[in-house]
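Task: fold both queries, return tokens.
Query 1:
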Amino acid sequence: MMILDVVGPVFLLIGVGFLSVRVNLFPAAAVGGLVSFATNFAVPCLLFRAMLTVNFSTAFNPGFLVSFYVGAVAAFAVGAVTARYGFARSPGESVVVGFSAYFTNTVLIGLPIVQRAYGDAALPQIYAIIGLHAPLLMSSGMIAMELARRDGEPIGRALLQAGQRIAANPLLIGIALGLSANLLGIDLPGVIDSATEMMTKAVLPAALFGLGGALNQYKLRESYGLAVVAALLKLLLHPLIALLLAVFVFGLSWELTRVAVLMAAIPPGLNVYLFATFYQRATDVAANSILVGTVLAVATISLWLFILEQPGRWGW
């Protein structure tokens, strides 16, 4: 019942968004605007406020971050190699499959799931992962793509484009502004404080409803086999590696370990599809990995929650 209480409301809101668009109770054309509002305005306000009071010694634990990101890189490598040699995909398409296996939906699903599971005490670690996630994994994916595809632009231009995209990312702008105010000891004026607080209350319902509506545009086609592989690597391999590193290599506290593992168990994010469409490579796999991963996550996240709530049973 505890697990149902954690994952149920999140996936229920996603399901309501999906069905509302499917039966025309909510216009499909408005879904993109709703998701843009959440990711470009509401979530940056949430991250801005979070960074105002973040404790750096608690949030940026090297072992915690390495456990999560090494697991992500491993999932990318396995996904790309599997697509290249197991499914005979081109190098560029293989990069997209790897990207689908390592890019987490940290904000729309990860944030509400982990916060509901472990409370506000987990927020500093969640924000630490979110702060590094987009710039690190997006830029790494772009570099890998430019190296893989034969018709790519010079690597210098790829790095420049990656840097420009990172600098213009609203999530990172919100984080940077919050950190700056934190380090400089700036107190927010009452109007700004109240306005940003009001904005943060819209994050979860708008983001989850919008994500559900967006899933209507993805349809399973002939690429479902490779999409399932990418989704399972994201949902199972990534968290497994994060767990092994956190417990047996870094000896992290269980409070840090379970946050790293559960964040790693979150399904692929919408940026997977945006990445694939930008390069026009394996867009069908990218779209289907989001759909399959989100559906399978109902079961796999429940499984990880069960495992993480009983460490003594596994001898950890």
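Query 1 returned. Query 2:
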Amino acid sequence: MRGLKDKRVLITGGASGIGAAVAKRFLADGSKVVVVDIDDNAIEEIIKELPDLAGTIHADVSDADHVKTAFIELKKICGGIDILINNAGISIRHMFLDITPDEWRKVMSVNLDGVFYVAQEAARYMLKNENGGVILNMGSTNGIMGYPLYIDYNCSKAGVIELSRSMALELAPKIRDNAVCPGYILTPMQEAEYTPEMLKECASKIPLERLGKPKEVAALFAFLASENGAYITGQAFVIDGGEIAGGLASKYE
């Protein structure tokens, strides 16, 4: 992808799932990639899988102090940041009436507070760059439509989308900011919450008749971060196989 060679890229939640696929893609495009994750075991595995990483950082994105420390470490590793992939997130499958205050706060603290903390710190560094930078936040189709059993997650992702749009207005012209909103992507997190039968049923209702692949989401991130996406900011990009074009159950029979 044009313009990604030697770019300094930070990926949160980058040791597994979509984050790991994004790391692999940016490395292939010649970027200098640093992965942030809270899971030390996953970090060990990604180092084995992607030995060309510029570095890895253990940090909890929901903790503002952890985030500040992570950026100090990032500066030591590669001198700064050009591209942020703000990917870290969690979900809990539960009924609305069963959500506890602690569960609500946990989801919000990672998915929304964490995205805010990391994006704000990244922007402060990027504004010092001659050419600014690019911030890409992980949204979801859950932040665009209502879904049962994930109300806290849905609300957090809706917040990420609005955060991205508003940041784009304030940070332009030096920094571009967009949200990427996947639908059903076959990741370890998805497989942990859905049985094979449930995944098969979901796929049957998607117009493209399958779940997405992490590498396909990674390709969208790469495009938006590259020179090919240089005139794109303040948008939420859906990648869902047509799922929400007319609703999950809208496939023509």
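Both queries returned. Flag for query 2: The CA atoms of residues 82 and 207 lie 36 Å apart.
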